[in-house]
Amino acid sequence: xxxxxxxxxxxxPSFANQGRGIEIFGNLDSMMEFINSRPSGSSCVxxxxxxxxxxxxxxxxxxxxxxxxxxxxxxxxxxxxxxxxSSNTYNL
Length: 92
Hints:
single chain, 92 residues, mainly beta, three-stranded antiparallel beta sheet, two-stranded antiparallel sheet, 11% helix, 29% strand
């Protein structure tokens, strides 16, 4: 049996944001059944949920930074970024 069969999986619509339309699955079989039942041509993002994420002050977080990539493979980063934390402390 594969190590990832009984973990949590997220299926997110590729056109939504802010957590809208996310489906959570406890195993790969039910996730695949859901994906295969979607209309032909529809797209989604599949993500393995990280059960033990890196936390900041017991909260999940993401880091927002901006950059520009040129056609010459140059990257320019805006100096200021920020850290966004969740509203609640983390609880699986």
